[in-house]
Amino acid sequence: MRGRTRLRRVGLPYLLLLPALLLELLVHLVPMVIGIVMSFKELTQLQIAHWGAAPWKALGNYRVIVDFDAPAGATLLHSFAVTCAFSVLTVGLCWLLGTAAAIFLQENFRGRGLLRAVFLTPYALPVYAAVITWAFLFQRDNGLINHVLHDQLGLTGDRPFWLLGDNSFVALLVVSVWKTWPFAFLVVMAALQSIPKDLYEAAALDGAGIVRQIRRITLPSLRPINQVLVLVLFLWSFNDFNTPYVLFGKAAPEAADLLSIHIYQSSFVTWNFGTGSAMSVLLLLFLLVVTAGYLLATSRGRRSADA
């Protein structure tokens, strides 16, 4: 009797987790395995209806995309560089804005609740609605941004194209930071609640100013949260597909050609699913290596700090 009771007690958590595990298997793991198999096949629109019978290409797709002297490899390398620059700038600006806003709103003043709600608005809006609105704002002839910069302030000699050419990277970065930084603000604001007020009062009595309190108390206390926050922001920005797709459509400008949209073009525009799948597998491996290296480095830094 006791054995049955213990078995039920031990097995109940796994039984409750079973539906979630099955859903995870169907939604993520099965498509991932199919994508890996497709990356080893010569799969175009002619074979997609019977993709299982498509010719086996082994590592042929991978050789094509890592040949950086060939057009496919050169464009992939350029897209990778653009994605890295975009991700680093997005993570840095989102963390900086979110941390600054969270620290500023720690003080009690009239209208603080309203200001918090305003700051969180971009994060609460649906992504497609927000990005489409920005696409209208960035229009060359009828957009509000050119109206303010060129017509009202006279900061530009001519109306720039924000959704074409080199300016497309700036437009993509602005939209990404605008819709992502409230998440950093929310996380940091919640983490600040766990820092004892006594530390700030003691530092103030010792003559420490605001800047020194932030450097000596706030930032060290936020280090564990920031380590997770930076990783999440990096993974989100590096895999971002919705923002460039809604902002530019199926063909993003060269300056804003992120890996996500580049893989989409290779798979669903040129109908080369084998090459697109190989790019996706390499992207997955890259993110796994970066994540493992980051977690290893941060864990070592945490252990050395505790020691």
The helix-and-strand class reads: mainly alpha
> Approximately what portion of the residues adopt beta-strand conformation?
under 5%
The helix content is over 70%
Cα-to-Cα separation, first versus last residue: 48 Å
Main beta-sheet strand count, sense and barrel state: none
The average pLDDT is 87
What is the number of strand segments? Answer: 0
The arrangement of helices and strands along the chain is: HHHHHHHHHHHH
Individual helix count: 12
- The dominant shape is globular
Write a brief structural summary:
This protein is mostly helical and 307 residues long. The chain is built from twelve helices and no strands.
General description of the model:
With 307 residues, the protein is mainly alpha-helical. Helix content is 74%, strand content 0%. The chain is built from twelve helices and no strands. Helix 1 crosses helix 12. The longest helix is centred in the N-terminal third of the chain and has 37 residues, at 2-38. The mean pLDDT is 87.
List the helices and strands and how they pair.
Blueprint lengths: L1 H37 L21 H6 L5 H34 L7 H13 L2 H11 L6 H9 L14 H26 L4 H9 L4 H29 L3 H7 L10 H11 L3 H34 L1
Notable characteristics:
mainly alpha, 307 residues
